[in-house]
Protein backbone atom coordinates (compact mmCIF):
# COMPACT_ATOMS: atom_id res chain seq x y z
CA UNK A 1 0.00 0.00 0.00
CA UNK A 2 1.32 3.40 -0.95
CA UNK A 3 1.37 6.53 1.16
CA UNK A 4 -1.11 9.05 -0.25
CA UNK A 5 0.38 12.47 -0.96
CA UNK A 6 -1.92 15.05 -2.45
CA UNK A 7 0.10 18.26 -2.23
CA UNK A 8 0.35 18.14 -6.05
CA UNK A 9 2.51 16.17 -8.09
CA UNK A 10 -12.28 49.47 -28.27
CA UNK A 11 -15.62 49.78 -29.74
CA UNK A 12 -16.44 53.44 -30.64
CA UNK A 13 -19.74 55.32 -30.57
CA UNK A 14 -19.96 57.53 -33.64
CA UNK A 15 -23.12 59.27 -32.53
CA UNK A 16 -21.24 61.76 -30.33
CA UNK A 17 -17.96 62.94 -31.77
CA UNK A 18 -16.36 63.74 -28.41
CA UNK A 19 -17.29 60.46 -26.77
CA UNK A 20 -14.80 57.69 -26.14
CA UNK A 21 -16.77 54.51 -25.68
CA UNK A 22 -15.39 51.01 -25.13
CA UNK A 23 -16.08 47.66 -23.56
CA UNK A 24 -14.37 46.39 -20.46
CA UNK A 25 -15.01 43.44 -18.19
CA UNK A 26 -16.01 45.83 -15.43
CA UNK A 27 -18.32 48.04 -17.46
CA UNK A 28 -18.55 50.88 -19.88
CA UNK A 29 -16.60 54.08 -19.41
CA UNK A 30 -17.98 57.10 -21.23
CA UNK A 31 -16.17 60.41 -21.21
CA UNK A 32 -18.21 63.40 -22.30
CA UNK A 33 -17.83 67.10 -22.34
CA UNK A 34 -21.26 68.52 -21.58
CA UNK A 35 -23.97 66.00 -22.16
CA UNK A 36 -24.18 62.33 -23.03
CA UNK A 37 -26.76 59.58 -23.14
CA UNK A 38 -24.43 56.60 -23.02
CA UNK A 39 -25.56 53.04 -23.73
CA UNK A 40 -23.73 49.83 -24.50
CA UNK A 41 -24.09 46.08 -24.56
CA UNK A 42 -21.60 44.22 -22.41
CA UNK A 43 -21.20 41.12 -20.32
CA UNK A 44 -22.43 41.23 -16.78
CA UNK A 45 -19.79 41.37 -14.08
CA UNK A 46 -18.99 37.67 -14.58
CA UNK A 47 -17.88 36.71 -11.07
CA UNK A 48 -19.81 37.78 -8.00
CA UNK A 49 -18.87 36.71 -4.45
CA UNK A 50 -21.48 34.83 -2.47
CA UNK A 51 -21.73 33.79 1.17
CA UNK A 52 -18.62 31.76 2.05
CA UNK A 53 -18.90 28.03 2.58
CA UNK A 54 -19.30 27.31 6.30
CA UNK A 55 -15.92 25.73 6.93
CA UNK A 56 -13.71 27.21 9.64
CA UNK A 57 -10.38 27.84 7.97
CA UNK A 58 -11.70 26.61 4.60
CA UNK A 59 -11.32 23.19 2.99
CA UNK A 60 -9.79 21.51 -0.05
CA UNK A 61 -10.80 18.40 -2.05
CA UNK A 62 -14.48 18.83 -1.14
CA UNK A 63 -17.26 17.68 -3.46
CA UNK A 64 -20.42 19.31 -4.73
CA UNK A 65 -23.49 19.06 -6.95
CA UNK A 66 -26.83 20.80 -7.42
CA UNK A 67 -30.47 19.80 -7.11
CA UNK A 68 -33.02 22.28 -8.45
CA UNK A 69 -32.14 25.78 -7.23
CA UNK A 70 -29.99 24.47 -4.38
CA UNK A 71 -26.28 23.77 -4.35
CA UNK A 72 -24.46 21.34 -2.09
CA UNK A 73 -20.89 21.15 -0.81
CA UNK A 74 -19.55 18.64 1.67
CA UNK A 75 -16.75 16.44 2.98
CA UNK A 76 -13.25 17.53 1.96
CA UNK A 77 -9.98 17.90 3.76
CA UNK A 78 -9.51 20.07 6.77
CA UNK A 79 -9.91 17.24 9.18
CA UNK A 80 -10.99 15.32 7.02
CA UNK A 81 -14.63 16.42 7.04
CA UNK A 82 -17.96 14.66 6.80
CA UNK A 83 -20.25 17.70 7.11
CA UNK A 84 -22.66 18.53 4.30
CA UNK A 85 -24.16 21.92 3.46
CA UNK A 86 -27.00 23.25 1.32
CA UNK A 87 -26.84 26.67 -0.36
CA UNK A 88 -30.04 28.44 -1.41
CA UNK A 89 -29.56 30.39 -4.64
CA UNK A 90 -32.47 32.74 -3.87
CA UNK A 91 -31.46 33.71 -0.32
CA UNK A 92 -27.67 33.16 -0.50
CA UNK A 93 -27.88 31.28 2.80
CA UNK A 94 -26.08 28.07 3.79
CA UNK A 95 -27.90 25.47 5.90
CA UNK A 96 -26.22 22.45 7.44
CA UNK A 97 -27.72 19.10 6.50
CA UNK A 98 -27.17 15.59 7.84
CA UNK A 99 -23.51 14.58 7.89
CA UNK A 100 -22.40 12.40 4.99
CA UNK A 101 -23.31 8.80 5.82
CA UNK A 102 -19.97 7.31 4.81
CA UNK A 103 -17.88 9.21 7.34
CA UNK A 104 -15.03 11.74 6.95
CA UNK A 105 -13.19 11.68 3.62
CA UNK A 106 -12.03 13.72 0.64
CA UNK A 107 -11.21 13.39 -3.12
CA UNK A 108 -14.59 11.72 -3.66
CA UNK A 109 -16.78 11.47 -6.78
CA UNK A 110 -20.31 12.86 -6.83
CA UNK A 111 -23.34 13.49 -9.04
CA UNK A 112 -27.07 14.12 -8.73
CA UNK A 113 -30.13 12.50 -10.30
CA UNK A 114 -33.54 14.12 -9.86
CA UNK A 115 -33.97 15.06 -6.20
CA UNK A 116 -31.19 12.75 -4.99
CA UNK A 117 -27.50 13.46 -4.56
CA UNK A 118 -24.73 10.85 -4.55
CA UNK A 119 -21.23 10.76 -3.06
CA UNK A 120 -18.92 7.79 -3.37
CA UNK A 121 -15.34 6.50 -3.26
CA UNK A 122 -12.69 8.79 -1.71
CA UNK A 123 -9.90 8.67 0.86
CA UNK A 124 -9.93 9.24 4.62
CA UNK A 125 -6.20 9.77 5.13
CA UNK A 126 -5.50 6.06 5.53
CA UNK A 127 -7.56 4.02 3.07
CA UNK A 128 -9.64 4.37 -0.07
CA UNK A 129 -13.38 3.65 -0.20
CA UNK A 130 -15.63 2.02 -2.78
CA UNK A 131 -19.03 2.76 -1.24
CA UNK A 132 -21.78 4.91 -2.77
CA UNK A 133 -24.27 6.89 -0.69
CA UNK A 134 -27.54 8.49 -1.71
CA UNK A 135 -28.87 11.68 -0.08
CA UNK A 136 -32.60 12.37 -0.28
CA UNK A 137 -33.37 16.08 -0.50
CA UNK A 138 -36.91 15.57 0.81
CA UNK A 139 -35.98 13.56 3.93
CA UNK A 140 -32.38 14.69 4.55
CA UNK A 141 -31.41 11.03 4.96
CA UNK A 142 -28.32 9.21 3.63
CA UNK A 143 -28.79 5.62 2.34
CA UNK A 144 -26.00 3.25 1.35
CA UNK A 145 -26.19 1.88 -2.18
CA UNK A 146 -24.30 -0.84 -4.06
CA UNK A 147 -20.55 -0.50 -3.76
CA UNK A 148 -18.55 0.76 -6.70
CA UNK A 149 -16.37 -1.88 -8.39
CA UNK A 150 -13.30 -1.05 -6.34
CA UNK A 151 -11.87 1.24 -3.71
CA UNK A 152 -10.31 4.38 -5.20
CA UNK A 153 -10.08 8.14 -4.95
CA UNK A 154 -9.48 11.09 -7.28
CA UNK A 155 -12.15 9.68 -9.64
CA UNK A 156 -14.72 11.74 -11.58
CA UNK A 157 -18.50 11.59 -11.43
CA UNK A 158 -21.35 12.89 -13.60
CA UNK A 159 -24.91 11.99 -14.51
CA UNK A 160 -26.89 11.74 -17.73
CA UNK A 161 -30.66 11.50 -17.37
CA UNK A 162 -31.47 8.77 -14.85
CA UNK A 163 -28.00 7.23 -14.79
CA UNK A 164 -24.90 8.06 -12.77
CA UNK A 165 -21.27 7.55 -13.81
CA UNK A 166 -17.94 7.19 -12.01
CA UNK A 167 -14.59 6.57 -13.68
CA UNK A 168 -10.81 7.04 -13.72
CA UNK A 169 -8.97 7.69 -10.43
CA UNK A 170 -6.37 5.85 -8.36
CA UNK A 171 -6.45 3.05 -5.79
CA UNK A 172 -4.46 2.33 -2.63
CA UNK A 173 -1.78 0.52 -4.66
CA UNK A 174 -1.14 3.61 -6.84
CA UNK A 175 -2.81 1.96 -9.83
CA UNK A 176 -4.41 4.62 -12.05
CA UNK A 177 -7.57 3.78 -13.99
CA UNK A 178 -9.22 4.65 -17.31
CA UNK A 179 -12.50 2.77 -16.80
CA UNK A 180 -16.05 4.19 -16.80
CA UNK A 181 -18.97 2.62 -14.93
CA UNK A 182 -22.69 3.32 -15.11
CA UNK A 183 -24.97 3.07 -12.08
CA UNK A 184 -28.72 2.59 -12.46
CA UNK A 185 -30.71 3.77 -9.40
CA UNK A 186 -33.69 1.65 -10.51
CA UNK A 187 -31.73 -1.62 -10.22
CA UNK A 188 -28.87 -0.45 -7.96
CA UNK A 189 -26.45 -2.18 -10.38
CA UNK A 190 -23.11 -1.03 -11.81
CA UNK A 191 -22.39 -1.74 -15.49
CA UNK A 192 -19.02 -1.21 -17.16
CA UNK A 193 -18.90 1.06 -20.21
CA UNK A 194 -16.19 1.69 -22.78
CA UNK A 195 -12.88 2.65 -21.22
CA UNK A 196 -11.98 6.32 -21.32
CA UNK A 197 -9.93 6.69 -24.51
CA UNK A 198 -7.80 9.45 -23.01
CA UNK A 199 -6.02 6.88 -20.88
CA UNK A 200 -5.49 6.38 -17.12
CA UNK A 201 -5.59 9.51 -14.97
CA UNK A 202 -6.59 11.10 -11.70
CA UNK A 203 -7.72 14.58 -10.64
CA UNK A 204 -9.60 15.09 -13.92
CA UNK A 205 -12.88 16.99 -14.36
CA UNK A 206 -16.18 15.77 -15.78
CA UNK A 207 -19.64 17.08 -16.64
CA UNK A 208 -22.49 16.30 -19.03
CA UNK A 209 -24.43 18.18 -21.69
CA UNK A 210 -27.59 16.46 -22.88
CA UNK A 211 -26.84 12.81 -23.65
CA UNK A 212 -23.08 13.32 -23.77
CA UNK A 213 -20.54 13.05 -20.97
CA UNK A 214 -17.18 14.82 -20.94
CA UNK A 215 -13.86 14.16 -19.20
CA UNK A 216 -10.78 16.34 -19.49
CA UNK A 217 -7.55 17.52 -17.89
CA UNK A 218 -6.07 15.44 -15.06
CA UNK A 219 -2.43 16.34 -15.72
CA UNK A 220 -3.10 17.09 -19.40
CA UNK A 221 -5.21 19.52 -21.40
CA UNK A 222 -7.06 17.02 -23.59
CA UNK A 223 -10.86 16.84 -23.64
CA UNK A 224 -13.09 13.90 -24.60
CA UNK A 225 -16.78 13.29 -25.30
CA UNK A 226 -18.66 10.09 -24.46
CA UNK A 227 -21.93 9.31 -26.24
CA UNK A 228 -24.41 7.53 -23.99
CA UNK A 229 -26.30 6.01 -26.93
CA UNK A 230 -23.32 4.61 -28.86
CA UNK A 231 -20.93 4.09 -25.91
CA UNK A 232 -18.16 5.68 -27.96
CA UNK A 233 -15.47 8.22 -27.01
CA UNK A 234 -14.53 11.08 -29.36
CA UNK A 235 -11.64 13.47 -28.86
CA UNK A 236 -12.60 17.13 -28.85
CA UNK A 237 -10.54 20.31 -29.03
CA UNK A 238 -7.87 20.49 -26.35
CA UNK A 239 -8.39 22.96 -23.53
CA UNK A 240 -6.20 25.99 -24.37
CA UNK A 241 -3.58 27.02 -21.90
CA UNK A 242 -1.36 24.86 -19.76
CA UNK A 243 -1.91 21.24 -18.83
CA UNK A 244 -3.48 21.03 -15.39
CA UNK A 245 -4.98 18.87 -12.69
CA UNK A 246 -7.28 19.57 -9.75
CA UNK A 247 -9.40 21.90 -11.91
CA UNK A 248 -13.18 22.33 -11.77
CA UNK A 249 -15.79 21.82 -14.47
CA UNK A 250 -19.51 22.34 -14.90
CA UNK A 251 -21.97 22.90 -17.73
CA UNK A 252 -24.94 25.01 -18.73
CA UNK A 253 -26.85 22.18 -20.37
CA UNK A 254 -29.61 24.42 -21.74
CA UNK A 255 -27.03 26.60 -23.52
CA UNK A 256 -24.91 23.58 -24.51
CA UNK A 257 -21.82 25.13 -22.97
CA UNK A 258 -19.19 23.53 -20.76
CA UNK A 259 -16.66 25.25 -18.50
CA UNK A 260 -13.27 24.29 -17.10
CA UNK A 261 -11.07 26.50 -14.97
CA UNK A 262 -8.65 26.93 -12.08
CA UNK A 263 -6.49 23.95 -11.05
CA UNK A 264 -2.71 23.60 -10.83
CA UNK A 265 0.00 23.36 -13.47
CA UNK A 266 2.73 20.72 -13.51
CA UNK A 267 4.82 22.68 -11.00
CA UNK A 268 1.92 22.82 -8.55
CA UNK A 269 1.25 26.54 -9.09
CA UNK A 270 -2.45 27.35 -8.76
CA UNK A 271 -4.32 28.77 -11.76
CA UNK A 272 -7.19 31.24 -12.14
CA UNK A 273 -7.96 31.08 -15.87
CA UNK A 274 -11.45 30.03 -16.92
CA UNK A 275 -12.63 28.66 -20.27
CA UNK A 276 -15.95 28.07 -22.05
CA UNK A 277 -16.48 25.24 -24.52
CA UNK A 278 -19.25 25.41 -27.15
CA UNK A 279 -20.71 21.98 -27.92
CA UNK A 280 -22.00 23.15 -31.33
CA UNK A 281 -18.70 24.56 -32.60
CA UNK A 282 -16.15 22.60 -30.53
CA UNK A 283 -14.41 25.91 -29.76
CA UNK A 284 -12.93 27.08 -26.47
CA UNK A 285 -13.20 30.76 -25.49
CA UNK A 286 -11.34 32.28 -22.57
CA UNK A 287 -13.55 34.07 -20.06
CA UNK A 288 -12.79 36.33 -17.15
CA UNK A 289 -10.49 34.71 -14.58
CA UNK A 290 -12.10 33.10 -11.56
CA UNK A 291 -13.06 35.80 -9.07
CA UNK A 292 -11.43 34.02 -6.15
CA UNK A 293 -8.01 34.10 -7.78
CA UNK A 294 -5.62 31.19 -8.42
CA UNK A 295 -6.84 28.05 -6.64
CA UNK A 296 -6.73 24.27 -6.99
CA UNK A 297 -8.76 21.45 -5.44
CA UNK A 298 -11.95 23.54 -5.52
CA UNK A 299 -15.58 22.51 -6.14
CA UNK A 300 -17.66 23.44 -9.17
CA UNK A 301 -21.31 22.96 -10.13
CA UNK A 302 -24.08 24.83 -11.92
CA UNK A 303 -27.65 25.90 -11.16
CA UNK A 304 -29.56 26.85 -14.30
CA UNK A 305 -27.49 29.41 -16.21
CA UNK A 306 -25.20 30.23 -13.28
CA UNK A 307 -22.00 28.47 -12.35
CA UNK A 308 -20.38 28.20 -8.92
CA UNK A 309 -16.85 27.60 -7.68
CA UNK A 310 -15.82 27.43 -4.05
CA UNK A 311 -13.23 26.30 -1.49
CA UNK A 312 -9.81 24.95 -2.55
CA UNK A 313 -6.14 25.68 -1.89
CA UNK A 314 -4.36 28.93 -2.71
CA UNK A 315 -0.80 27.62 -2.75
CA UNK A 316 1.28 24.66 -3.90
CA UNK A 317 0.51 22.74 -0.72
CA UNK A 318 -2.62 22.49 1.36
CA UNK A 319 -1.26 25.13 3.72
CA UNK A 320 -3.53 27.97 2.64
CA UNK A 321 -7.10 26.91 1.97
CA UNK A 322 -10.20 29.01 1.48
CA UNK A 323 -13.94 29.08 2.13
CA UNK A 324 -14.64 31.40 -0.84
CA UNK A 325 -17.73 30.82 -2.94
CA UNK A 326 -18.30 32.67 -6.23
CA UNK A 327 -21.07 32.82 -8.83
CA UNK A 328 -20.35 32.97 -12.57
CA UNK A 329 -22.75 34.34 -15.16
CA UNK A 330 -22.28 34.66 -18.91
CA UNK A 331 -25.56 36.53 -19.33
CA UNK A 332 -25.35 39.38 -21.83
CA UNK A 333 -27.30 42.39 -20.69
CA UNK A 334 -27.81 45.94 -21.85
CA UNK A 335 -26.22 48.66 -19.80
CA UNK A 336 -27.78 52.01 -20.61
CA UNK A 337 -26.48 54.86 -18.50
CA UNK A 338 -27.11 58.56 -18.88
CA UNK A 339 -25.28 61.48 -17.35
CA UNK A 340 -25.89 65.19 -17.87
CA UNK A 341 -25.34 68.50 -16.15
CA UNK A 342 -27.42 71.57 -15.50
CA UNK A 343 -26.35 74.05 -16.72
CA UNK A 344 -25.10 72.24 -19.84
CA UNK A 345 -22.64 74.93 -20.89
CA UNK A 346 -19.24 76.14 -19.74
CA UNK A 347 -19.61 77.55 -16.23
CA UNK A 348 -17.86 80.30 -14.32
CA UNK A 349 -15.61 79.73 -11.31
CA UNK A 350 -17.70 78.58 -8.34
CA UNK A 351 -20.95 78.26 -10.27
CA UNK A 352 -23.44 75.72 -8.96
CA UNK A 353 -23.74 72.66 -11.21
CA UNK A 354 -26.28 69.86 -10.86
CA UNK A 355 -25.12 66.50 -12.25
CA UNK A 356 -27.68 63.76 -12.86
CA UNK A 357 -27.15 60.07 -13.68
CA UNK A 358 -29.68 57.39 -14.56
CA UNK A 359 -29.85 53.81 -15.79
CA UNK A 360 -29.24 51.89 -12.58
CA UNK A 361 -30.48 50.98 -9.16
CA UNK A 362 -27.25 51.88 -7.36
CA UNK A 363 -24.78 54.73 -7.85
CA UNK A 364 -21.30 55.43 -6.51
CA UNK A 365 -19.78 58.80 -7.40
CA UNK A 366 -16.13 59.76 -7.41
CA UNK A 367 -17.13 62.40 -4.83
CA UNK A 368 -18.40 59.76 -2.42
CA UNK A 369 -22.14 60.28 -2.88
CA UNK A 370 -24.34 57.25 -3.50
CA UNK A 371 -27.39 58.93 -5.01
CA UNK A 372 -28.35 59.53 -8.63
CA UNK A 373 -27.82 63.28 -8.26
CA UNK A 374 -25.04 65.51 -6.94
CA UNK A 375 -24.38 69.25 -6.67
CA UNK A 376 -20.92 70.69 -7.18
CA UNK A 377 -19.24 74.11 -7.41
CA UNK A 378 -16.14 73.59 -9.59
CA UNK A 379 -13.42 76.22 -9.52
CA UNK A 380 -11.41 74.55 -12.31
CA UNK A 381 -12.35 72.21 -15.14
CA UNK A 382 -13.13 68.90 -13.43
CA UNK A 383 -14.34 65.41 -14.31
CA UNK A 384 -16.99 63.63 -12.24
CA UNK A 385 -17.55 59.89 -12.65
CA UNK A 386 -20.19 57.54 -11.32
CA UNK A 387 -20.34 53.74 -11.23
CA UNK A 388 -23.84 52.61 -12.12
CA UNK A 389 -25.16 49.10 -11.39
CA UNK A 390 -28.45 47.83 -12.79
CA UNK A 391 -30.69 44.99 -11.65
CA UNK A 392 -29.33 42.61 -14.32
CA UNK A 393 -25.88 42.64 -12.75
CA UNK A 394 -24.31 44.95 -15.32
CA UNK A 395 -22.10 47.74 -14.09
CA UNK A 396 -20.70 50.71 -15.94
CA UNK A 397 -18.74 53.86 -15.29
CA UNK A 398 -19.92 57.07 -16.89
CA UNK A 399 -18.05 60.33 -16.51
CA UNK A 400 -18.72 63.95 -17.31
CA UNK A 401 -16.26 66.79 -17.58
CA UNK A 402 -17.46 70.24 -16.50
CA UNK A 403 -15.51 72.98 -18.34
CA UNK A 404 -14.83 76.04 -16.15
CA UNK A 405 -14.02 79.47 -17.57
CA UNK A 406 -11.46 80.83 -15.13
CA UNK A 407 -11.91 84.27 -16.66
CA UNK A 408 -15.27 84.74 -14.99
CA UNK A 409 -16.63 84.28 -11.50
CA UNK A 410 -20.16 83.33 -10.59
CA UNK A 411 -22.31 86.06 -9.10
CA UNK A 412 -25.43 86.18 -6.99
CA UNK A 413 -26.75 82.91 -5.61
CA UNK A 414 -24.41 80.89 -7.83
CA UNK A 415 -21.26 82.43 -6.38
CA UNK A 416 -18.79 80.59 -4.20
CA UNK A 417 -15.47 81.97 -3.07
CA UNK A 418 -12.59 80.84 -0.92
CA UNK A 419 -14.19 82.46 2.06
CA UNK A 420 -12.42 83.17 5.34
CA UNK A 421 -15.56 82.06 7.14
CA UNK A 422 -15.79 78.40 8.11
CA UNK A 423 -18.93 76.40 8.78
CA UNK A 424 -19.38 73.02 10.41
CA UNK A 425 -22.46 70.93 11.19
CA UNK A 426 -22.14 68.75 14.30
CA UNK A 427 -22.96 65.92 14.55
CA UNK A 428 -23.12 64.88 10.92
CA UNK A 429 -25.12 62.74 10.22
CA UNK A 430 -27.76 63.64 12.79
CA UNK A 431 -31.18 62.37 13.73
CA UNK A 432 -33.05 65.12 15.59
CA UNK A 433 -30.85 68.25 15.57
CA UNK A 434 -27.35 69.53 14.88
CA UNK A 435 -25.31 72.54 15.86
CA UNK A 436 -24.25 74.83 13.00
CA UNK A 437 -21.00 76.53 14.03
CA UNK A 438 -19.63 79.58 12.20
CA UNK A 439 -16.10 80.89 12.71
CA UNK A 440 -14.25 83.95 11.41
CA UNK A 441 -17.48 85.84 10.77
CA UNK A 442 -18.63 89.18 12.18
CA UNK A 443 -20.82 88.13 15.06
CA UNK A 444 -23.21 91.07 14.84
CA UNK A 445 -24.05 90.39 11.23
CA UNK A 446 -27.13 88.55 10.08
CA UNK A 447 -26.28 85.35 8.24
CA UNK A 448 -28.53 83.43 5.88
CA UNK A 449 -28.52 79.65 5.40
CA UNK A 450 -30.40 78.09 2.51
CA UNK A 451 -30.92 74.30 2.53
CA UNK A 452 -31.59 72.25 -0.62
CA UNK A 453 -32.68 68.64 -1.12
CA UNK A 454 -31.14 66.21 -3.60
CA UNK A 455 -33.30 67.56 -6.41
CA UNK A 456 -32.04 71.09 -5.84
CA UNK A 457 -35.29 72.25 -4.30
CA UNK A 458 -34.94 74.81 -1.52
CA UNK A 459 -36.49 73.31 1.60
CA UNK A 460 -35.50 75.84 4.24
CA UNK A 461 -34.27 79.45 4.52
CA UNK A 462 -32.81 80.38 7.93
CA UNK A 463 -31.57 83.77 9.18
CA UNK A 464 -29.39 83.97 12.29
CA UNK A 465 -26.54 85.90 13.84
CA UNK A 466 -23.70 84.91 16.14
CA UNK A 467 -21.34 81.97 16.14
CA UNK A 468 -23.86 79.13 16.16
CA UNK A 469 -27.47 78.04 16.05
CA UNK A 470 -29.39 74.81 16.56
CA UNK A 471 -30.63 73.27 13.33
CA UNK A 472 -33.78 71.30 14.11
CA UNK A 473 -34.67 68.42 11.80
CA UNK A 474 -38.38 69.22 11.75
CA UNK A 475 -39.92 67.93 8.53
CA UNK A 476 -36.64 67.02 6.84
CA UNK A 477 -36.79 63.44 5.59
CA UNK A 478 -33.89 61.01 5.82
CA UNK A 479 -31.29 61.81 3.17
CA UNK A 480 -28.52 64.12 2.00
CA UNK A 481 -28.98 67.91 2.04
CA UNK A 482 -26.84 70.72 0.67
CA UNK A 483 -26.53 74.17 2.18
CA UNK A 484 -25.30 77.62 1.22
CA UNK A 485 -24.41 80.07 3.97
CA UNK A 486 -24.37 83.71 2.85
CA UNK A 487 -22.39 86.40 4.66
CA UNK A 488 -22.75 90.18 4.48
CA UNK A 489 -19.41 90.51 2.70
CA UNK A 490 -20.97 88.38 -0.09
CA UNK A 491 -18.83 85.38 0.74
CA UNK A 492 -20.64 82.06 0.41
CA UNK A 493 -19.74 78.79 2.10
CA UNK A 494 -21.33 75.54 0.92
CA UNK A 495 -21.49 72.08 2.35
CA UNK A 496 -23.74 69.14 3.00
CA UNK A 497 -25.18 67.20 5.90
CA UNK A 498 -27.04 63.95 6.31
CA UNK A 499 -30.28 63.33 8.16
CA UNK A 500 -30.72 59.74 9.31
CA UNK A 501 -33.44 57.73 11.03
CA UNK A 502 -30.90 55.48 12.73
Describe this structure in words.
The protein has 502 residues and is an all-beta fold. The protein folds into 3 domains: 23-44 and 333-409, Immunoglobulin-like; 67-330, 6 Propeller (Neuraminidase); 417-499, Sandwich (Immunoglobulin-like), CATH 2.60.40. 0% of the residues lie in helices and 48% in strands. The chain has no helices and 42 strands. A 5-stranded mixed beta sheet has the order 1-2-34-33-31, with no helix packed on it. It has a 4-stranded antiparallel beta sheet with strand order 3-28-30-32, with no helix packed on it. A hairpin with a 2-residue loop joins strand 13 and strand 14. The chain is elongated. The N and C termini lie far apart (65 Å). The model is unreliable at 1-44 and 412-419 (pLDDT under 50).
Rounded mean pLDDT score? 85
The secondary structure category is mainly beta
At the third CATH level, what is the topology name of the largest domain? Neuraminidase
Uncertain spans: 1-44, 412-419
Give a quick account of the main beta sheet: strands, pairing sense, barrel closure: 5 strands, mixed
Cα-atom radius of gyration:
31 Å
Give the name of the CATH superfamily of the largest domain. Answer: Kelch-type beta propeller
Order of neighbouring strands in the sheet with most strands: 1-2-34-33-31
Task: Supply the CATH architecture of the largest domain.
Answer: 6 Propeller
Shape: elongated
How many domains would you count in the coordinates?
Answer: 3
- Mind telling me the CATH class of the largest domain? Mainly Beta
Distance between the termini: 65 Å
Into which percentage range does the β-strand content fall? over 45%
Proportion in helices: under 10%
**Strands, total number:** 42
Total count of helical runs of at least 4 residues: 0
